[in-house]
Write a structure and sequence with these properties.
The chain has three domains: 3-88, Cysteine Rich Protein (Ribbon); 137-185, no CATH class; 192-219 and 271-362, no CATH class. Helices cover 40% and strands 18% of the residues. The protein contains 13 helices and 13 strands. It has a three-stranded mixed β-sheet. A two-stranded antiparallel ribbon has the order 1-2. A hairpin with a 5-residue loop joins strand 9 (171-173) and strand 10. The longest helix has 23 residues, at 3-25. The N and C termini lie far apart (124 Å).
């Protein structure tokens, strides 16, 4: 017998010995296995789980104590039906009350199927209706929407809402380039006679608040954006009105015997009636300031005072039509108009109007 033949025999014997050792160590070869549950010999079919043998009827769920015949979950040496494991470990969706298997979401100690959370629990976009995940925008009215909609839709030049079907029922564009939503357009003021009528109305209300404005010295003109830009010295895209004031003095022997004031209020046409009225109230206060003070205020005091009078006017009417305007006034983050308004309001809200006016006269 050759050496090569002997070598081949030794390799075969070595392989057989190796396989026998592996099978023995992993229980692949075992005669008469014992059931881990009843401790009796198993004859016939059996189940192996975690290296232990069970009669098919003795492989029991630790929760319901019934035989497990399909998929199971193992934890801490115990076995469970998938459904029972979910119940035992509180893996039940807090929305649909059904078993959670696979991926799930935990929010404020509550568990949800990903589908349930995204479609029924997660807040929806006010514009497209899809779930809001990650960062999103909340406008002053509480509408929540995806940031992408900011570039997809224009904003109303009156109420600053996104102009879309769900929020405003759409909108339109004026010839001067302004975008106005249909909510605001429904009461838009564009006719000169309407402006004059509203001026009389607001003047009477302002006077009734204890702020004397000279009705006979004030006129109003509805204008487009380009005209307003031409008359307003500090025009911005937020500018809705402007008051141009002038003074003529009658002299006698070199002394002033009479002062004649004239004011022209320019207001953008096409704004809602509520925004038009509030703008008129603001500009009427500019007229009062011109006539009665040294007019040397910082911008935030001057504009804050005018916004405060607009606030007093709207608040005195208790009219829900002014809700949007009041909200935009309260939420305005502009350091001049918004912060100025809140500063004046904090000083004089519960005080007599005379104290407010005297403060401006003495400033």
């Amino acid at each position: 017998m050759s050496k090569n033949y002997n070598a081949e025999i030794l390799k075969v014997l070595a392989l057989v010995f190796f396989l026998f050792s592996v099978l023995s160590s992993t229980n692949y070869i075992q005669e008469n296995p014992t059931c881990a549950y009843c401790k009796k010999e198993i004859k016939g079919q059996y189940i192996i789980a975690n290296g232990k043998y069970y009669h098919p009827g003795h492989f029991l769920c630790a929760k319901c104590n019934k035989p497990i015949t399909g998929e199971f979950v193992s934890k801490d040496g115990k076995f469970y039906h998938k459904e029972c494991f979910a119940v035992e470990n509180h893996m039940i969706c807090d929305y649909c009350q059904k078993e959670i298997s696979g991926e799930y979401v935990i929010v404020i100690n509550k568990k949800y199927h990903t589908y349930c959370y995204e479609n029924y629990v997660l807040e929806k976009c006010s514009v497209c209706g899809l779930p809001l995940q990650g960062n999103y925008i909340i406008d002053i009215y509480g509408n929540k929407y995806h940031p992408a909609h900011e570039t997809e839709f224009n904003k109303c030049d009156c109420c600053n809402r996104l102009i879309c079907e769900k929020l405003t029922g759409g909108g339109r564009v004026y010839s001067d380039g302004r975008n106005v939503c249909n909510k605001c357009y429904a009461t838009a003021v564009s006719d000169q006679k309407q402006f004059e009528k509203l001026l009389d109305y607001v003047e009477d209300k302002i006077i009734s608040l204890g702020i004397p404005v000279g009705k006979e010295r004030i006129k109003i003109i509805g204008v487009d954006r380009s005209t307003l830009r031409s008359v307003c010295k500090q025009y911005t895209d937020k500018t809705r009105g402007y008051c141009v004031s002038s003074l003529q003095e009658e002299l006698l022997n070199g002394k002033v015997v009479k002062k004649i004031f004239n004011h022209t209020i320019y207001v953008l046409y096409g704004m809602s009636a509520a925004y038009t009225k509030s703008t008129i109230a603001h500009e009427l206060m500019h007229a009062w300031i011109y006539e009665n003070t040294k007019n040397r205020f910082p911008d935030h005091i001057c504009e804050g005072a005018c916004n405060y009078v607009s606030y007093l006017f709207m608040n005195s009417l208790q009219d829900m039509d002014f809700y949007d305007v009041l909200l935009s006034l309260e939420k305005d983050r502009d350091p001049v108009y918004g912060d100025g308004f809140r500063y004046i309001k904090s000083k004089f809200l519960n005080k007599n109007v005379k104290e407010f006016l005297q403060y401006l006269i003495n400033y």
